[in-house]
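Moderator note: this is an archived Q&A kept for reference. The question asked for a predicted structure of one protein chain; the sequence and the answer are reproduced below.
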Amino acid sequence: MYRAAILLLAAALSAGAASPEHSAAPERFEIGYDSAIVSERGPITTCVLFHDSQVHKFVPPANMRLMVEGLQKKIVFTGTDLDTTVTIQLLDEKLAATSAAQLNRIRQQVRERYPQGRIVEEGECYTSDGKGCSFDVDYEVENIFRRARVCFVPIRDRSETVMFTLATSAATFTAGHLTFMTMVGSFETRPPK
């Protein structure tokens, strides 16, 4: 059984909604938590993202600070050492690697996000809802070598894509990658109740 403990963080929406460039009513973008007992693991906490008319659930990365950027439809988790960030962002276009042309388009978006970076690996990734594509990018910030994994997974029956990003030092990428992919794999979209 789920015990809902909903924590609404809509302040970011209401703060930006009054500005002229955001004169339309803002979309709903709120985060909460659920608790569940899984027989194999015991109690777990899941994040619940309420966006527009959809409900997205996922297992959050442990021991990370949460920040919601509602106007950008983005959730950012930051590690206690400030070295690692995990981001979930909802994009207003469907980016599915269903053809070589589509994959090149997604690859170009990664290059635009990391103009000084180098894509070192490409692969597939999976959420509870379906398959997407992933890119590992090596880049440098202030003489520190960093690595990012960027995953794009289209939301079924919607013209949107979820972009997941892990950014960390190259030395801690392997450890962070396992937690990150667990979060990506747990992500699911449900219609509202």
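Archived answer notes: Residues 100-113 form the longest helix (14 residues).
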